[in-house]
TrEMBL record, chains A, B:
Designated name of the protein: LacI family transcriptional regulator
InterPro entries linked to this entry: HTH_LacI, Lambda_DNA-bd_dom_sf, Peripla_BP/Lac1_sug-bd_dom, Peripla_BP_I
Keyword tRNA processing in record: no
Keyword field: DNA-binding, Transcription, Transcription regulation
CDD domains per record: HTH_LacI, PBP1_LacI_sugar_binding-like
Domain of life assignment: Bacteria
SMART domains attached to this UniProt entry: HTH_LACI (SM00354)
Limits of the HTH lacI-type domain: 5-59
Length: 342, 342
DNA sequence: TACTTTCGTGTAATCGATTACATAATTTAA
DNA sequence: TTAAATTATGTAATCGATTACACGAAAGTA
């Protein structure tokens, strides 16, 4: 059933050598036109398909690129991957997916596996929990495999990145809450060893200071990105002597939890308490009480990452390119924080 | 920078041949224990890494599997892929992602590309729009590449599938609406050339008949899976002489659209009108008016697909295996359809 | 005509690993 | 002690494509 046809089979049939067949198929200029046409016709007739594995071995390029994300079943990461796939499809690259589940060990394994599989490039969102050990990343770079961080980035020489301006995202959102009249704004942060959470926090803080509001350490709560974590965080905030009247959450899920908890206590949103999230998860706009959130344009981020990869992949090795692309965040103001009239 | 170490380098250093090195590394029983240890030690010292591409060429197996989905940025498909990846990770397979965007042309291209890349198996959710041309699928089977359909399946000899019992899902949901006292239940369906939509419809119809309700053609509306489509569909239903008092939607998004449209008309849910969806998208449980929906256990579906693949991949070619796994749907009853007390 | 280019194709090495077969080394049996 | 059996290793082909180099034939030049 369906014997594999090789260039040797074509060569034999035409009484020429495989070298000539290869040249004809690759549009090598030093081949007679008549021969080329004959080979092409015969190849088509015999249903020849190039063996990519042989090509990959010979060339050292697999035409695969690897993508490493904490998990794929999150709207954000799935959208980024969609963008990557769409941008790379016309160039003939296949996208290999790896998940870390926020495990450094898994991240390192994935990096090594991808290098071993000789992918032509790696795009990833790092798993943050601080590890001093960059050896897996260095291993990638030593092998001259282009490495690109998206969203969650790290400072490593030779690595390009595509991120959004998280500082600005935090700033804009906080400023918006201030403009709505909020006086005591809390913040849900994530693991600040990750730049994204650090910068959202810094943007938040700066917006407070620039607008004459006091920054209170007790208003900053470190939460996981989950509904339950959001509930618990609000619970803690409301126990304070002077509880806040708004929260800017680095996570939409935590923001949702906050809203659910506030509603269960009959605290009116946005009248008594405003809530804003981050990531613009689909549900934020679907809710009846739609949730204000910062869009990270994941699709664009994926496409941009792919473009950066394409730029790097064919450059001569001599010049080390390191490109930092920063996308603009976009604040979507919705009911959860809009006190003033629509 | 980081020369690639091959078995020839190891052989040279130890004054033996590459064959011996290969055997030692592969735990071939006919190698002297001392030699094996020496090779292993040397390989480790030299930081040897097996070249997967060479192995793939020699063995004809790439250790990659392909997954084709309409789009990746849907919670359902992303979760299935997550399941596949997690199940296959311990077995050393890498997962290649392809999107069709519901285009048959793209689907066929992807199938050919994956076969050309010599993946060891393909798992996919078909793009339904009726095409009589099964040649791409047959091409896969001729090459002896295990092919597994999940969720959206097709009847093709030699192809295994993992689906849920959509008929039952439709039946259960409709029965539930009847039990809540609904007398005139409408249905939003999708492209019925896809079994999933056909079967949900049939389950719906059967539940009506089994419970003495009239089946009305005019209550069945074919919609896209989008919020706007749901709004429009409800709009049309309400124009009928005897408008329905409930809808079972094959899409959560259309169900959401229905709810939004009903609410904008001040029709009370679930008191005057009940709504149920399908897929158990995350937002259905997040809404204040949470939406009744059928869970398809996508994670389990992915894992199961992977397991079916693993069963098939090593079987001798002589026996043709064709496994049909049908998972049970699970109805999640929520506020949008729960008239009676909680 | 004789000599140099140019053109088209063949030869053979290469990418890195695996493995059937051959052979050398060692052990066992007689 | 010698033949037979066993064990460990080497030799070389193979997977399928690409490509530097060699070479014969055709074309151009003097």
């Amino acid at each position: 059933m369906s014997e594999k046809v090789t260039i040797y089979d074509i060569a034999e049939k035409l009484n020429i050598t495989a070298a000539t067949v290869s040249r004809a198929l690759n549009n090598n200029p030093k081949i007679k036109e008549a021969t080329r046409e004959l080979v092409l016709k015969t190849a088509a007739a015999m249903n020849y398909k190039q063996n990519k594995l042989a090509l990959a071995l010979k060339s050292g390029r697999s035409n695969n690129i690897g993508v490493i994300v904490p998990r794929i079943d999150s709207n954000f990461f799935a959208s980024v991957i969609r963008g990557i796939e769409e941008e790379l499809y016309p160039h003939g690259y296949q996208v290999i997916i790896c998940q870390t589940h926020e495990s450094i060990k898994r991240e390192n394994e994935n990096l090594h596996t991808l290098v071993d599989a000789q992918v032509d490039g790696i795009m990833m969102s790092v798993t943050g929990i601080s590890d001093e050990n960059d050896s897996a990343f260095r291993h990638v770079l030593e092998k001259n495999v282009p490495l690109i961080f998206f969203d969650r980035s790290k400072h490593i020489d030779g690595v390009s990145s595509v991120t959004i301006n998280d500082f600005k995202g935090g700033y804009l959102t906080t400023k918006h809450l201030i403009d709505e009249g909020c006086k005591a704004i809390a913040h849900f942060s994530g693991d600040q060893s990750l730049d994204i959470f650090k910068n959202r926090f810094l943007g938040y803080k700066q917006a407070l200071l620039d607008n004459g509001l006091e920054f209170k350490e007790e208003y900053v709560i470190y939460t996981k990105s989950s509904v339950d974590a959001g509930k618990e965080a609000v619970d803690n905030l409301l126990k304070l002597d002077t509880p806040p009247d708004a929260v800017f959450s680095s996570s939409d899920f935590a923001a949702l939890g906050a809203i659910q908890e506030l509603q269960s206590r009959n605290i009116s949103i946005p009248k008594e308490f405003c809530v804003a999230g981050f990531s613009n998860e689909p549900f934020t706009k679907f809710m009846e009480l739609s949730i204000t959130s910062v869009d990270q344009s994941p699709l664009e981020m994926g496409k941009m990452s792919a473009r950066v990869f394409l730029e790097q992949v064919d450059k001569t090795d001599t010049i080390k390119i390191e490109k930092k692309v920063v996308l603009a965040p976009e604040l979507h103001i919705r009911k959860s924080s809009k006190k003033t009239n629509f």
